[in-house]
Amino acid sequence: MDLHTISVFSTVEFSGVAAGALAGALEARRNQTYQYDAIGVLGLAIITALGGGITRDVLIQKGPPLAFLDVRYLMVALGAGLVALLFGSIARPSILKLVWFADAASLGLFSVAGVSRALNAGLPILAALILGLITAVGGGSLRDVLMGRTPRVFERGEPYTIAALLAVLVFLAAESLGCDRTISTTVGALAGLVLKLLSARFQWKTPAVGFRVE
Length: 214
Known about the structure:
There is one protein chain. The chain has 214 residues and is mainly α. It has one domain (3-202). Helix content is 75%, strand content 0%. Helix 1 (3-29) runs antiparallel to helix 5 and helix 2 runs parallel beside helix 5 (93-120).
């Protein structure tokens, strides 16, 4: 992996960590079922921010997870969590919109970071695609489980996983066309973000799939 690729990957990964930690901490602060203390809020922020990436790196089996090798991952997650802890009580509409946007941005960023990390490890495209999705939704799913609810990615609602899949597919398409890694990373992350924005604007929801037993 050349220095340019490392720089792009690090920028995307750290941006996703910050956005994920911010969204995770504020989600914990706004929870109506449980009353979390400072440790709970920061813990859920770290899990949201780093859970998907750690799961990805464990599955890749190329040494310890990056979050354990580079202290900056933990520092970024803690920093974003502290911001939410100190200022998250400002429940203004603009703040809530910022939280939603941070969560939407982290989706595309983590998707691209995950598939990029898998490709750099020499894994085939299908495996890289799956690991991109795991990176994107893993941290939020772990947070939801620890908060005592079914992961939102499994429920009817916003096309969370579909947006992550689009980000990964656009990234892989740009890579196959020979685009520079910076370009493929940017268009992939933006594709996931744009789908999230459009789904919110037009109230797109994934349909429930069920049946009745007569």
